[in-house]
Amino acid sequence: MNDGWPSPAWQAVDDAAAAGLPADLRPWITLSTSMTARLRASVRSQVRVELVRHGPGTLHGDERGCFEGAAAQGHVREVCLHGAGRPLLAARTVHVSARLAQAPGFAGLGTRPLGELLFGDGVQACWSRREFSRLAAPSPLWPLVQRFAAGPQSRCWARRSVFWLLGEPLLVTEIFLPPVPDFMPEEAHR
Fold first, then answer.
1. Among 9, 96, 139, 150, which residue carries the largest CB count within 10 Å?
2. What residues contact residue 110 under an 8 Å CB cut-off, 6+ apart?
């Protein structure tokens, strides 16, 4: 990984930082299990994935620091998770690995949630870094927010994590579209 991590716009998720987050957001930012499963439990409905794009693309400047060599080009997947009749979360996944781009599980995700690949079969995905931010225009992620947010937004909370899949880094950014769903305690979906 590049020494440019973390980006000035992003803050590492740790106990001290989490304590300063709004109470309704804190459990979402610090969640260590599947975001898709937690959304399903929270909204008590199916979660549908809308695929925006999946293929070769340009990495944002602050994403490049997450990969060796600061590659400008990579593979980009953007989606929106919908549930309970509204958009809940916009997500952007990027990597620079030819191996991941060709891996059947990742390349063929389509409208399946990435969480099924990262947390499927009871496996706890391995992540090495996690950050959060409060996004606003002119963030390069802002067009994704505007595409799905209900009504005009001035800021949105987001977190990003570097997961390891097939031994390769995969940067997953999750943007919480207001209003953030009520958090369900762990026991609620067992």
1. 96
2. 51, 54
Average per-residue pLDDT for the chain: 85
Concatenated DSSP letters of 162-186 = EEEETTEEEEEEEEEPSSPPPPPPG
Q: How far apart are CA 37 and CA 22, in angstroms?
A: 22
Mean pLDDT along residues 161-177: 91
pLDDT band for position 7 (cuts 50, 70, 90): low
Instruction: Give the number of other Cβ atoms within 10 Å of residue 33's Cβ.
Output: 13
Global pTM exceeds 0.85: yes
DSSP H or E stretch at residue 161: strand 156-165
**Cα within 13 Å of Cα(27), Cβ side:** 13
In 3D space, the residue among 70, 44, 43, 75 whose CA is nearest the CA of residue 58 turns out to be 75
Q: Which helix (H) or strand (E) holds 114?
A: helix 114-119
